[in-house]
Amino acid sequence: MGYDIERFVGYVNEGLLCSICRDVLEDPLQAPCEHAFCTACIHGWLVHHSNCPEDRQMIDVSLLRPLYRYMKNDLNRLQLHCKNREHGCEMVCSLESIDRHERECEYSQIPCPNAGCTVQIERRNLDGHLAVCEYRSRECPNGCGYTILSAEDTQHNCVAELRTELELLRSEMICRVEEAKHEMESRLDSQRRHMVQKESILQNEIEELKSQMSRMMSDVRSLMAAERQHRQELEQAELEKREL
């Protein structure tokens, strides 16, 4: 839909009106036959039709183009009233700048930013509303640090709130301690299993060393016995030699 022609000051050229809604063009597009439309209007029309609503020439979405520059300039220079005129805004500005003005207009209806509040208020009255809004929040004046809503003032109890906060902190601390405990137990179990495996490996290595040492001692005894036998044979040979 276009801009309501009743909002405009002075004469509006027929060529700047949408051929479908007959209001002043908004976000305009132009067909090859040079008829102009609001983007929303022509897209809605082409869902059910395949021709121009003015001269019935065949058109397609792909054939639509932006408005000629001179027509766009003429459109942007049109003067119109703010949409909040009925609420008291007397601003008249060009179509090119109307959106910027209306985004900042003091007479615009805006929602209260407080969570839970459904009031729509004029921007210029927002500060006054926030001062009395039953959903406004503030810090407890008694020093407990709790944020309260005005509607909860009569129900707020610093001791109860602090006790609740303390219980929450205690529960959180217990959970953290339990998590740390489980983590430490898991680490200790892992280290214990590692130490058991290491001990088993070391025990096997010790047994192997004992076995090797036993074999070495046996070899040493065998060598010592062979050496005694060899010495005896030499002594016997020496005696026989003397006798000869």
Automatic annotation (TrEMBL):
Protein name as it appears in the record: RNF41 ligase
Domain named RING-type: residues: 18-56
GO terms, biological process: regulation of canonical NF-kappaB signal transduction
UniProt keyword annotations, A-Z: Coiled coil, Ligase, Metal-binding, Zinc, Zinc-finger
Residue stretches in coiled coil: 192-243
Location of the TRAF-type domain: 101-144
Native species: Steatornis caripensis
Transmembrane segments annotated in the record for this chain: none
Molecular function, one GO term: ligase activity
ZnF (TRAF-type) residues: 101-144
Highest rank taxon of the organism: Eukaryota
Domain spans labelled SIAH-type: 77-135
SMART domains membership: RING
PROSITE patterns named among the record's database cross-references: ZF_RING_1, ZF_RING_2, ZF_SIAH, ZF_TRAF
InterPro entries per the UniProt record, alphabetical: Znf_RING (IPR001841), Znf_RING/FYVE/PHD (IPR013083), Znf_RING_CS (IPR017907), Znf_SIAH (IPR013010), Znf_TRAF (IPR001293)
